[in-house]
User: Which sequence fits this backbone?
């Protein structure tokens, strides 16, 4: 069953920055979609747009169908009902997203009281259950955020996101700034919760390796568009788009002699969303750009069964030589 | 790359911080021996809270050791301001977050020239700044002189920080998570820069990181730190492809592309003010928990006998009763 269907989503900030420029996504319940990309590619804006959390004055176009209903056309009250209960977000940087002067238990209980309509005692009981689900002792409800470690705070954020039994969870860089071991713990936890509760998960990260390991499908974003989309392992191991290739090459496989003393990056910097290059936005950094790329924009097209990419080399007579 | 003696060497280094309100003191660095040869890149890896940043800071003389010594080019560090100032010209620090380590109201030129001014550089300041920026990959350097940090991308800012470190022509760079806050595509470029500096200038580097892929990318040698001590050290190939310490094995097994079943250690690294007796890793050790250590006949030793400090030199060593028992049997 399709849980979320995003059609031709565009987001333009009041300063003219075109952060998202025509994104299509679809997600079934119980499945996991990874969105990869660098800072400024529009991946966090996409997450905020899904729940209409963008600042006033931002222009949002297209359709966001959550369970068949367009979030963008909902009245304010409906949007409020969808937040937390329909879909919730685990934000990046749990240090900044938790209120430092409130106990974490009260912060988890807040959405339950506001959206679940439960009484104080029921909310407290539910908070205890949630903490146990994410692997924290119930007694930690009385702790303040500064008394918890980074991994524990991230667990609290996840407990909060699950508080009102949403069908969709959006995790924005849930493990950035965490150590490898804690990252592994959090990823296992997210995977387990998704499969137990038949949730739909959108996970946003710049780390293609982590996404490929956790998600079923992967969408790679560049300059506000999805430039490659397909089954997670296939995109990670054999990307069709040169940007997808560069991203997966940036995280070396240990033991691979090809990356020993040979870190791979991509020259240049991610583009500025308010001053995008002409034609294919990737052409200034592209190692396989053709003359025409400077003027000709590229759209997603089928490159292999179930895989799409937006590159002149994909699905055309000329195959990329790399 | 063998030289008569190591460029930097730490012997029996201890850094303890006093506990507050009667709490026991925190042994952040608890007996470390580490050598860095000329032109060598050493990666120091471990989880947050393992003491790796404190170790790096004490190697630079920013934290005085409570025991042991640090020597540079054969001479022990003297902890008076004049000697430290001279030392800091030769050993430079590159911090994690370039946005935080650059003054937002200083231009790129001022940021890079600051070190020269502090050390009373007598030569052509502008040429030195331009040279450092060019070496850090900001070309043409003149175009960047009057820019402010907010006008630069994250990768460019980190290059400015590196240029600021290079301008004094140091012999050693200590980089604390140099790419952790950078984008994936920029990360490779900065690492390639560190490698190029080693080739071109013979610069030694200690790279502090929790990213094992980074070590594979650029380091010659790796030292794995756990709770104040180095628990395994050796060449990158040795340690990362055939790890012997259960902790290193666990760290490698949780990487996304690692083969086999991941060993996810529960809990977080314990508190440095309460270091367990016996092997400091035994409470989280998967080998002890699975009974394998018992089979090897070392389980008692794991719980009760502390391991000696590993020597700082190049050869592969491991601080683990079980790994040693496996070698001898």
Assistant:
């Amino acid at each position: 069953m399709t849980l979320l269907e995003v059609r031709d989503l565009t987001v333009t900030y009041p300063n003219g920055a075109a952060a998202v420029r025509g994104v299509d996504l679809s997600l079934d319940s119980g499945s996991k979609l990874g969105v990869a990309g660098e800072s400024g590619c529009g991946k966090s804006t996409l997450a905020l747009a899904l729940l209409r959390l963008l600042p006033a004055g931002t222009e949002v176009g297209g359709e966001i169908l959550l369970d068949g209903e367009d979030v963008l056309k909902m009245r304010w009250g409906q949007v409020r009902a969808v937040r937390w209960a329909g879909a919730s977000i685990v934000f990046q940087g749990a240090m900044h997203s938790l209120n430092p002067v409130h106990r974490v238990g009260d912060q988890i209980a807040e959405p339950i009281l506001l959206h679940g309509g439960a009484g104080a005692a029921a909310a407290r009981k539910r908070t205890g259950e949630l903490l146990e689900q994410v692997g924290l002792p119930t007694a930690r409800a009385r702790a303040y955020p500064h008394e918890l470690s980074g991994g524990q705070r991230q667990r609290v954020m996840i407990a909060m996101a699950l508080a009102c039994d949403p069908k969709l969870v959006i995790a924005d860089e849930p493990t950035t700034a965490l150590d490898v071991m804690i990252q592994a713990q959090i990823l296992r936890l997210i995977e387990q919760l998704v499969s137990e509760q038949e949730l739909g998960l959108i996970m946003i990260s710049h780390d293609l390796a982590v996404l490929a390991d956790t998600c079923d499908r992967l969408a790679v974003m560049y300059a506000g568009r999805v430039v490659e989309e397909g089954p997670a392992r296939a995109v990670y191991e054999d990307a069709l788009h040169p940007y997808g290739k560069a991203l997966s090459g940036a995280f070396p496989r240990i033991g691979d002699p090809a990356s020993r003393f040979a870190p791979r990056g991509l020259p240049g910097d991610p583009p500025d969303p308010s001053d995008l290059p002409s034609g294919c936005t990737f052409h200034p950094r592209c190692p396989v750009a053709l003359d025409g790329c400077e003027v000709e924009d590229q759209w997603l097209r089928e490159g292999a069964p179930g895989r799409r990419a937006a590159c002149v080399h994909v699905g055309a007579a000329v195959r990329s030589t790399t | 790359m063998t030289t008569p003696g190591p460029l930097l060497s730490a012997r029996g280094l201890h850094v303890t911080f006093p506990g507050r309100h009667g709490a026991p003191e925190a042994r952040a660095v608890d007996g470390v021996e580490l050598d860095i040869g000329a032109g060598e890149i050493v990666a120091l890896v471990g989880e947050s809270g393992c003491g790796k940043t404190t170790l790096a800071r004490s190697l630079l003389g920013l934290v005085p050791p409570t025991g042991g010594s640090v020597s540079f080019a054969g001479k022990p560090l003297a902890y008076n301001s004049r000697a430290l100032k001279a030392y800091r010209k030769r050993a430079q620090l590159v911090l994690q977050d370039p946005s935080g380590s650059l003054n937002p109201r200083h231009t790129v030129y001022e940021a890079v020239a600051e070190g020269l001014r502090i050390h009373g550089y007598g030569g052509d300041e502008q040429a030195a700044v331009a040279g450092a920026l060019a070496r850090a990959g900001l070309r043409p350097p003149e175009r960047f002189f009057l820019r402010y940090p907010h006008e630069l991308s994250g990768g460019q800012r980190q290059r400015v920080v590196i240029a600021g470190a290079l301008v004094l022509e140091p012999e050693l760079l200590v980089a604390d998570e140099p790419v952790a806050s950078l984008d994936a595509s920029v990360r490779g470029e900065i690492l390639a820069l560190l490698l190029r500096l080693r080739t071109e200038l013979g610069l030694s580097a200690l790279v502090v990181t929790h990213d094992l892929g980074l070590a594979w990318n650029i380091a010659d040698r790796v030292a794995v730190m756990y709770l104040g001590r180095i628990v395994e050290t050796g060449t990158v190939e040795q340690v990362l492809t055939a790890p012997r310490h259960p902790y290193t094995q666990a760290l490698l097994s949780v990487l996304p592309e690692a083969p086999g079943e991941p060993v996810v250690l529960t809990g977080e690294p314990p508190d440095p003010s309460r270091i367990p007796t016996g092997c400091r890793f035994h409470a989280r050790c998967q080998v002890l928990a699975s009974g394998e250590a018992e089979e090897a006949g070392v389980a008692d030793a794991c719980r009760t006998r502390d391991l000696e400090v590993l020597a700082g030199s190049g050869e592969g060593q491991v601080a683990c009763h079980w790994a040693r028992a496996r070698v001898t049997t």
Notes: Residues 180-197 of chain A form the longest helix (18 residues).
